[in-house]
Design brief:
- With 225 residues, the chain is an alpha+beta fold.
- The protein has a single domain, classed as Jelly Rolls.
- It is built from 4 helices and 11 strands.
- The chain has helices at 12-37, 119-124, 178-189, 191-198; strands at residues 55-56, 59-62, 73-78, 84-89, 94-97, 103-105, 114-117, 134-137, 142-150, 157-158, 176-177.
- The strands form 3 sheets. Strands 1, 2, 4, 7 and 9 form a 5-stranded antiparallel β-sheet that branches. It has a 4-stranded antiparallel β-sheet with strand order 3-8-5-6, with no helix packed on it.
- Helix 3 (178-189) packs across helix 4 (191-198).
- The longest helix is centred in the N-terminal third of the chain and has 26 residues, at 12-37.
Length: 225
């Protein structure tokens, strides 16, 4: 949606760009496989990914030196907003929630990518596939991870595919715009985004609040352990 701002590090742009190119192809391939798994016509999802708002993030988690509880939470429980997340990591700390709402550790394998379902795919599938709640614990002084978020085009309207809503079954999700959902959640979860938006003249944009609710995180509000 705009130019990247690259740091002045030799080889950085080339290396990251090559990784982005390869993992974006993989993300699209996985969506093609999911179309077949869900018995949807080819292109049902991927035709909505001609200019996707997919992000690659290079994350560095640092445990505060004052933190005494090594199993405290570094990144709070949440779901990812897009269709899929392809995550490369070499450090322990990631936990996901099981179907019976229990937290379990994700094994670390540098030769494998962790794949999480996101909000948009849950809505598209009418709940057949569920967005994966996850969190990060303070198990080590620092942790690196590379999540790639497989997304749709900005203006895609996300709503359950008719082929996945059985006769007599309710549509479980109201339509929403992919770009608007992503932006709303980014503003909620990243204070520097929220501060930038809220510092603009109020006539240009609505004030963004950290209390915005994500309907795909309802299980996180039920006191799970």
């Amino acid at each position: 949606m705009g130019p990247n701002v690259w740091p002045e590090l030799t080889g950085f742009q080339d290396t990251v760009s090559r990784y982005y190119a390869k993992i974006s192809v993989l993300g699209r391939l996985l969506c093609t496989a999911l179309e077949a798994h869900l018995r949807l016509p080819a292109g049902t999802m991927t035709d909505q990914m001609s200019k996707p708002i997919s992000q690659l993030r290079l994350l560095h988690y640092v445990r505060d030196s004052k933190t005494l509880q090594r199993k405290s939470v570094n990144m709070g429980a949440h779901t990812d907003y897009e269709c899929l997340t392809l995550l490369h990591t070499r450090n322990k700390g990631l936990q996901v929630m099981t179907q019976d709402d229990k937290w379990i550790d994700v094994p670390v394998d540098p030769d494998a990518l962790i794949v999480n379902i996101g909000d948009m795919l849950e809505a598209w599938s009418n709940g057949i596939l569920r967005s994966t709640p996850h969190r990060v614990l303070n198990l080590s002084p620092e942790r690196f991870s590379l999540p790639y978020f497989v997304a749709t085009n900005h203006d895609t309207v996300i709503q359950p595919f008719p082929q996945l809503v059985d006769v007599g079954q309710d549509v479980k999700y109201k339509p929403f715009a992919a770009g608007a959902h992503l932006e709303r959640m980014l503003m909620r979860d990243f204070p520097y985004f929220r501060h930038k938006i809220n510092s603009r003249p109020k006539g240009n944009v609505d004030v963004v609040s950290a209390s915005v609710q994500n309907p795909f995180e309802q299980r996180l509000n039920q006191g799970v352990t």
